[in-house]
Design goal:
The complex is a heterodimer of chains A (about 300) and B (about 650). Chain A has about 300 residues and is of the alpha/beta class. Helices cover about 35% and strands about 15% of the residues of chain A. Chain A has two domains: about 5-190, 3-Layer(aba) Sandwich (Rossmann fold), CATH 3.40.50; about 205-285, no CATH class. The model of chain A is unreliable at about 280-290 (pLDDT under 50). By secondary structure, chain B is α/β, with parallel strands linked by helices. The chains are: A alpha/beta (about 300), B alpha/beta (about 650). Chains A and B meet through helix 1, helix 2, helix 7 and helix 8 of A and helix 1, helix 2, helix 4, helix 6 and strand 2 of B.
Chain lengths: ~300, ~650
């Protein structure tokens, strides 16, 4: 007997999910956020359709405020053979100069939530892969793998379709769409282990290095470019930091760390005593249940 | 986020590489927890997460704050709050959907489907159970085996879970009394025997104190069995049994990047496969040989159940999505009539005779379900008579598909692990696209195979040639009073004048004879249309041009008739008269009666009409006369098709 490990099983399940989507949806797309989960998802997609090229484009919903290292990796991936990378920026947010310094929660709402809906409608995508995992947050724990959205992109937690065995109902009416989460059953640790096992390239910001940062509202924020608005009394200093999650740089909290290899990151993570999403400002907006609210509004 | 078990923290700190190496060979166990609302299920899971160090400092701080604010433990830590995810259900204090949790110990990684206990959400439990290897059933020590305990046992058993744990919770509230535990175990033993559950253990636990959750604890010295977590770490997993089955792989997707490569992608449902193996492609039955087992990491010498691979064959053989590649010498059967257990999951009850989409593995078909043979009382296993299945009902019924389906018996009674991929299916409503039922196939009905079509010496081609016309069914649909019969009559007259052989089927000549046993309920209306379809089909075999005039309000039924006919022989004519116009004309005075409440289920008033999406012709009766319409239809009909 050949013993499949839990990573082998997770990989096989994710590939199965992606193939079902491609076989039954009319216009699939993969949301590519440049983070480690996206990197794993992209790697799995390559495996699922090898030796054919990816049968769908990647979509990056940009905000103009990602880390420079993220843009570098994105552009590298976008330039690879067989990859079609689409980049969408909400023109209204662009015109109004929406930014995380002056506009608070509106920044995430307009660039990400609205930007995503715009892009999906504009290209007519009816199935969008996302890298969300059920272990991330309590309302995610109940998310289906194939999550049905109304024509206005709303998620109705009570109206979800039952999902039995590995049978996915991909049917929908015109205008309706699906979010598909191939990494649903992966944990944070699974993702890291898989990155190591497969040698998947990730943004270097996940590994500790000396970086220019300021401390603000209890978070360590990296000063990634000269658009950063320093407040009175704030000093930029160089500290050894890394990031657990990546988003818009002014909204991403770093942790002080010496972990400069993935093994050390995993080691730190396993011995850590605070949870992953603590470094994210957006989850704090509306207190408890805010992620669920965002999801109902169409945030991924 | 899954944190490591406490035992492993030292190893992580001292030698992370050794730890990661060990992680690589961990197995995966999926289980579900079920119990009634107050059995302390969320508390037990919260405790499991706590004991296995899955809870971070910030989560713990939030938990302490939440416990004071909304907790049910009088300000003490309420572990249930860790688990109850959605704000709506937190406010109600109950879990309302399936939630998946993750944790790991030194030996295994676990995925827990947390499923709700109260009756109206049976479908969620079936969902959680469909992917689980084991079920943990919670019984409140104070209440003992309840109706819900029996229902959950039966349901998990039906869905093919062979291993059960009876977790007797809240032992702290009965003073950790052995007698209370023994009484519950004895009670459950009788019931388990009755329903055929053989592989089960009972464990007394307290989610509140933690006794027998991760380890034995002090309070119940009289119990010598394993703690819950110990049991979950050592219970056998089914992958060996799946690999020992004959080879089966449903084809998901044909991988054809260029003319030189043609691979069949899928996840292996059973057995193993290697280059050189002789295989059969079902349902066509063609024989081929495996050339390569392709993956991005290089070709494999062998692949086994559970893996997602791409297979190539040594020769060009027709094979596409929905086909199943199987061991040539040990193939499964294909059939189009089955008996199955069905779990109904939609608010709208099952409509016998209506066409639903059926999805089984990668196969899609239209399926109709007959009136149930019986419904199961899930508290007693008693078989009850039933005309339909309503939300959360479980029954046994015959299913007919419009094409052969490659399948295996789901096989809950054979002792081995169930054939989930080739025995489990879902039904999808054709109008709303909702998943309305899950089912498990028992066996194929031989009846369909035994009724051989009579080979006729004078076939339909001959009939058609003798009459010098191409047969067709011209199907008029539209509201009552839209003008269907009027136009159909004119069309028939015109065709007759041209020497064509026709027959007009309408409500009157059918309702008074063939269908006089049918009323106007939804089920009867569907059966009415089905019979009309079958009669029309026989008449086309005789070479006739058949005209039908029925309201036929449901798209699903019209599509069902369309599917019976040969390609191009079904011509759907939508007689499009707006409701207010039809009501204004009210030729037979029916609308007035319906409005007065004398005619229930009247289409357009209190029963819906689903207009055709792509009819062959649409007749706007507000824009043309019946005469003009008839001319247009005749013209269309006589066009070379």
């Amino acid at each position: 007997m050949q013993n499949l490990t839990h990573l082998d099983r997770l990989e096989a399940e994710s590939i199965h999910i992606m193939r079902e989507t491609v076989a039954e949806a009319s216009r699939p797309v993969m949301l590519y956020s440049i983070g480690k989960d996206s990197a794993v998802m992209l790697h799995l997609a390559r495996k699922a359709f090898y030796p054919a090229p990816l049968p769908f484009p990647l979509l990056h919903v940009d905000t103009n405020w990602k880390f420079r290292d993220m843009y570098a990796l994105r552009d590298k991936v976008g330039g690879e053979d067989g990859i079609e990378l689409l980049i969408h920026k909400n023109p209204e947010a662009e015109a109004r100069g929406i930014n995380p310094f002056d506009h608070g929660p509106l920044h995430t709402d307009m660039w990400k939530t609205e930007g995503l809906k715009q892009a999906l409608d504009m290209f007519g995508f009816d199935a969008a892969f996302g890298g969300a995992r059920r272990d991330e947050e309590k309302s995610r724990a109940k998310e289906r793998i194939f999550s049905f959205r109304t024509a206005s992109h709303r998620w109705d937690p009570k109206g979800q379709r039952p999902e039995l065995w590995s049978l996915y109902n991909v049917r929908k009416n015109a205008g309706e769409s699906m979010r598909v989460f191939p990494l649903s059953n992966w944990t944070e640790l699974d993702v890291w282990q898989y990155i190591m096992r497969e040698g998947i390239e990730i943004v270097p910001l996940y590994l500790a290095a000396p970086r220019p940062v300021v401390e603000r509202d209890g978070l360590i924020i990296m000063v990634d470019d000269d658009r950063f608005q320093l407040r009175d009394g704030e000093q930029v200093e160089t500290r050894a930091v890394r990031f657990r999650t990546l988003g818009c740089y002014p909204l991403s909290g770093a942790v002080e760390s010496d972990a400069d290899t993935i093994e050390k990151v995993v080691q730190e993570m396993l011995l850590a005593t605070t949870s992953e999403r603590q470094g994210r400002i957006i989850d704090r907006d509306a207190g408890d249940g805010s992620m669920e609210k965002k999801k109902q509004e169409g945030y991924f | 986020m899954a944190l490591p078990h406490a035992d492993e923290r030292d190893l992580i700190a001292s030698d992370i590489s050794a730890y990661l190496e060990r992680q690589k060979s961990k197995e995966l166990l999926r289980f579900i927890t079920c119990g009634s609302v107050d059995d302390g299920k969320s508390t037990l899971i919260g405790r499991l997460l706590f004991e296995t160090r899955q809870i971070f400092d910030d989560q713990m701080a939030a938990l302490e704050a939440d416990s004071k604010r909304v907790g049910t433990q009088g300000g003490k830590i309420d572990f249930a709050l860790l688990v109850d995810g959605l704000s709506a259900e937190r406010e109600q204090g109950i879990t309302i959907d399936v939630a998946y949790r993750f944790f790991a110990t030194a030996k295994r990684k676990f995925i827990v489907a947390d499923t709700p206990g109260h009756e109206q959400y049976t479908r969620n439990m079936a969902t959680g159970a469909s992917t689980a290897d084991l079920a943990v059933l919670l019984v409140d020590a104070r209440k003992g085996v309840l109706e819900q305990t029996r229902r959950h046992s039966i349901l998990t058993h039906l869905v093919g879970i062979r291993r059960l744990v009876l977790a007797v919770t809240k032992m702290d509230l009965v003073g950790f009394d052995k007698g209370a535990f023994d009484a519950i175990v004895a009670d459950y033993r009788d019931f388990a025997e009755q329903i055929g559950v053989t592989d089960w253990v009972a464990i007394p636990v307290s989610g509140l104190s933690g006794d027998n959750v991760a380890s034995q604890g002090e309070a119940m010295g009289w119990y010598s069995g394993p703690a819950l977590l110990e049991h979950l770490e050592t219970v056998p997993i089914d992958s060996a049994a799946d690999q020992a089955k004959p080879f089966r792989m449903p084809v998901q997707w044909v991988n054809r990047p260029d003319q030189h490569f043609r691979g069949f992608a899928g996840q292996i449902a059973g057995g193993r496969v290697a280059p050189g193996d002789e295989v059969r492609i079902l349902p066509s039955g063609r024989i081929g040989r495996i050339d390569r087992v392709v993956t991005m990491d290089g070709d494999l010498p062998e692949a086994v159940a559970g893996q997602s691979v791409t297979l190539t064959l040594t020769q060009e053989i027709d094979c596409s999505r929905g086909d199943v590649i199987v061991a040539a010498k040990d193939p499964p059967h294909a059939a189009d009539q089955f008996e199955a257990t069905i779990i109904w999951m939609a608010d709208e009850a099952m409509v016998p005779g209506r066409g639903y989409w059926l999805k089984l593995a990668t196969q899609n078909a239209t399926a109709t379900v007959a009136q149930p043979k019986h419904q199961l009382n899930v508290n007693t296993m008693e078989e009850l008579a039933a005309k339909t299945l309503e939300l959360n009902a479980i029954g046994v019924a015959e299913i007919t598909t419009d094409r052969p389906i490659v399948f295996e018996a789901y096989g809950v009674d054979r002792g081995g692990p169930p054939n989930r991929q080739l025995g489990g299916f879902i039904l999808i409503d054709k109008l709303t696209n909702a998943t309305v039922a899950a089912g498990m196939l028992h066996f194929a009905l031989r009846r369909a195979e035994n009724v051989h079509w009579q080979a006729l010496d004078v076939g339909r081609d001959m009939h058609s040639r003798l009459k010098g016309q191409k047969p067709a069914v011209v199907w008029f649909t539209g509201l009552s009073g839209a003008g269907k019969s009027t136009i159909a009559n004119l069309v028939e007259k015109k065709l007759a004048a041209m020497g064509r052989h026709t027959f007009l089927l309408d409500g009157d000549n059918v309702r008074h004879g063939l269908n006089k046993d049918l009323g106007f309920t939804e089920a009867d209306r569907i059966e009415n249309i089905r019979r009309v379809g079958e009669v029309a089909k026989l008449m086309t075999d005789a070479g006739l041009i058949v005209l039908t005039a029925f309201i036929s309000p449901f798209r699903a039924e019209r599509d069902m008739v369309r599917a019976m006919m040969a390609e191009g022989e079904f011509i759907e004519i939508f007689v499009d008269t707006p409701l207010d116009e039809a009501e204004r004309r009210d030729v037979k005075g029916l609308y007035a009666k319906a409005r007065a409440g004398e005619l229930p289920n009247f289409t357009g008033i209190d029963s819906p009409y689903e207009p055709p999406e792509q009819p062959e012709m649409r007749i706007d009766t507000t824009a043309m006369s019946a005469e003009e319409a008839a001319d247009r239809i005749v013209e269309e009909l006589l066009k070379p098709r």
